[in-house]
Amino acid sequence: MSYQEIKSIVALVSTLLINGLYGWYVFWRYQQEAPGVAELFRFWAVAMLIFMGVALVAQILITVVFRAAYRRITGETEPSFADELDRTIGLRATRNAYYAFALGLVVALLTQVLSLPPVALFATMFLAGIASEVAQALTQLYYYRRGV
Amino acid sequence: MEKTGKLRIGNQVRKLRFLNGEMTQQQLADKVGVTRQAIVAIEAEKYSPSLELAFRIARAFNTTVEEVFILDETSL
């Protein structure tokens, strides 16, 4: 299995782990605090802003640990640049990530059209974010394995 | 009616590496400016390189693009 394939699997697992744990924590807090309509937007804005920081730090740590583990286990160094194959696959992965997020956004808006509670809007947008990252990692894995 | 499916393009990269002093995939990758994984994908016919990369690979073997890459006529 190539470096890029392993990297895609690590990205997939870490996305599911970080987003899943943080999502679980936020929904647990939401149920504990039960914010009213006035506090609802503030609650989700704070939750999403904190998540951006948490996700950034977690991704940096995972990248550093993954590279160190890859070097130690395989005795090889990771590619230092992205070539035309990486860029082609990267573009397709980004396209699919946008599709997944756009679909999630439409579903999020539909929750309000169907008069579901506001929490459904934020929860769906959060899930759309996870779906887009999963779509990106899966697309990369698929094209690195099957070819372009 | 004209076929619009993907053309199958074979290649002689592995053979040419062997004939050029058993050049490694990494050596070829360094010569043409891509990662070793890209050479692996090209050899396995999982990736058809850009025209620019095809010329660089041919030049690395001191040959022509037609000697390295072969169009499978049955896929036309």
Distance from N terminus to C terminus of chain A (CA atoms, Å) equals 17 Å
State the CATH architecture of chain B: Orthogonal Bundle
Query: Per DSSP, what share of the residues of chain B sits in E-state strands of 2 or more residues?
Result: 5-15%
Strand content of chain A: under 5%
The overall number of domains of chain A is 1
**CATH homologous superfamily of chain B?**
lambda repressor-like DNA-binding domains
Task: Give the CA-CA distance, first to last residue of chain B.
Answer: 12 Å
- The strand count of chain B comes to 2
H-E string of chain A: HHHH
Gross morphology of chain B: globular
Which class do the helix and strand fractions of chain B yield? mainly alpha
Q: The biggest beta sheet of chain A, please?
A: none
Helix content class of chain B: 40-55%
- Class computed from helices, strands and strand pairing of chain A: mainly alpha
Low-confidence segments of chain B: none
Radius of gyration of chain B: 13 Å
Helix-residue proportion of chain A = over 70%
> Using CB atoms under 8 Å apart, which protein chain pair has the greatest interface?
A-B, 13 and 16 residues
**Which fold does the CATH topology of chain B refer to?**
434 Repressor (Amino-terminal Domain)
Q: Total number of helical segments of chain B?
A: 5
| Strand arrangement across the biggest beta sheet of chain B | 1-2
Transmembrane segments (chain A): 9-28, 40-66, 97-114, 120-144
Keywords (chain A): Membrane, Transmembrane, Transmembrane helix
Protein name (chain B): Transcriptional regulator, y4mF family
Pfam family, one (chain B): HTH_3
Task: Characterise the protein shown here.
- The complex is a heterodimer of chains A (148) and B (76).
- With 148 residues, chain A is mainly alpha-helical.
- Chain A has one domain.
- Chain A has four helices and no strands.
- In chain A, α1 (3-33) packs antiparallel against α2 (37-74) and α1 runs antiparallel to α4.
- The longest helix of chain A has 38 residues, at 37-74.
- Chain A starts with a helix and ends with a helix.
- The mean pLDDT of chain A is 93.
- With 76 residues, chain B is mainly alpha-helical.
- Chain B has a single domain (9-64), classed as Orthogonal Bundle (434 Repressor (Amino-terminal Domain)).
- Chain B has helices at residues 13-19, 25-32, 36-43, 51-60, 65-68; strands at 9-11, 69-71.
- Chain B is globular, with a radius of gyration of 13 Å.
- At the A-B interface, α3 of A face α3 of B.
